[in-house]
Amino acid sequence: MICDYEGSDYKTRFWKNSDRVYEDACERVALRRLLPPHGKRLADFGAGFGRLADLYAGYDEVILLDYSRSLLEEAQEHWGHDPRFRFVAADIYHLPFAGGVLEAATMVRVIHHIADVSRALGEIRRAIAPGSHLVLEFANKRNLKAVSRFALRRQDWSPFSLEPVEFATLNFDFHPRWMRRQLEANGFRLQRMLAVSYLRWSALKRSMPIKAMVYVDALLQLTSRLGVLSPSVFTLSENAVGMDDGQELSGDAIFRSPLSGLPLRRDGDTLVCDADGTRWHAQGAFYDFKEPM
Ligand SMILES: C[S@@+](CC[C@H](N)C(=O)[O-])C[C@H]1O[C@@H](n2cnc3c(N)ncnc32)[C@H](O)[C@@H]1O
After folding, report:
1. Substitution candidate for ligand 1 out of 67, 70, 119 with most atoms within 8 A of CB
2. What share of the chain in percent tops pLDDT 90?
3. Using an 8 Å Cβ cutoff, are 78 and 276 in contact?
4. 261: which residues sit within 8 A by CB, 6+ positions away?
5. In a 3-state reduction of DSSP, which class is residue 90?
6. Rounded to the nearest 5°, which phi and psi values hold at 96?
7. Mutational test site, ligand 1, from 4, 5, 44, max ligand atoms within 8 Å of CB
8. Nearest-angstrom CA–CA distance, 91 and 72
9. Would the CB of 20 count as within 6 Å of ligand 1?
């Protein structure tokens, strides 16, 4: 099951019309801290409308991948003029990449919609070159609010138990230790964790200047060794598996049929897989791997 954002007003409803300047700012601090600043090819998995795309300025190629074509079209309106960008409609469970073609990857505010975390991380790990990095953000079930609600018996699930909690359909919170195990089981080596958004309280947002909030958050992010109790956690992991020469591939050659994993050749505005018989729409910088034509 996929949490479908097709046609959603995510950008306006969630970011523009809501009071989330603080969250956006401290996520940027965390991403800047963790993401290697330069590189060849980066993919943002579940990029939505490309909210964080300006942080990828140091990369030669940027792939914004999302299941929602409409959000990607919004991203293209903003970033389409920049030849470094490609917009890829695809499902994280069936990625259209050859192995090891990415030098860096990010996934922010997405894995909380993913029911099969292991499968998604396995797909992403295969697309990343050995020794290259993934910055993954996840929603933390062991956060201060959940801990206090549980202590006051206002919440029936324990924030300390390891299994994910699905608090609404296809919306999961994860325990940091559980997420570490998932990363490691799928070939990643976890290198850093940042505790992000501790000050996510409406009362604070009303009373404290945003600059001060972000300053304090930036300090609190570095306290993760004392225990992570923030609502959001950013992680940096390295692909610890094997050798791969995918990074030598360029242009359309980085893509594979998401159905079979086999190579594609270009025919006008179509990518054709002769081996599995599928055809995929690929016009300009916009690639559609959601369903074959
Ligand atoms: C909450 S939005 C986050 C967007 C962006 N990362 C940000 O932080 O602004 C979640 C995004 O994940 C995408 N998504 C969810 N499940 C997906 C899947 N299986 N494959 C690809 N994208 C997916 C949605 O389409 C949506 O754009």
Report:
1. 67
2. 91
3. no
4. none
5. coil
6. -95, 40
7. 5
8. 13
9. no
CA–CA dist 253, 43 (Å, integer): 15
One-letter amino acid at 121 equals: L
**Helix runs in the chain, H state only:** 10, 21-34, 69-79, 117-127, 144-151, 176-185, 202-207, 210-220
CATH pick for 10-254 out of 2.60.40.1670, 3.40.50.300, 3.50.50.60, 3.40.50.150: 3.40.50.150
Distance 82 CA to ligand 1 centre (A): 22
* Per-residue pLDDT reduced to its tens digit, 40-88: 999 999 999 999 999 999 999 999 999 999 999 999 999 999 999 999 9
pLDDT in tens, 125-147: 999 999 999 999 999 999 999 99
**Band of residue 11 on the pLDDT scale cut at 50, 70, 90:** confident
pTM, entire model: 0.97
Q: Are 139 and 172 a contacting pair, CB within 8 Å? A: yes
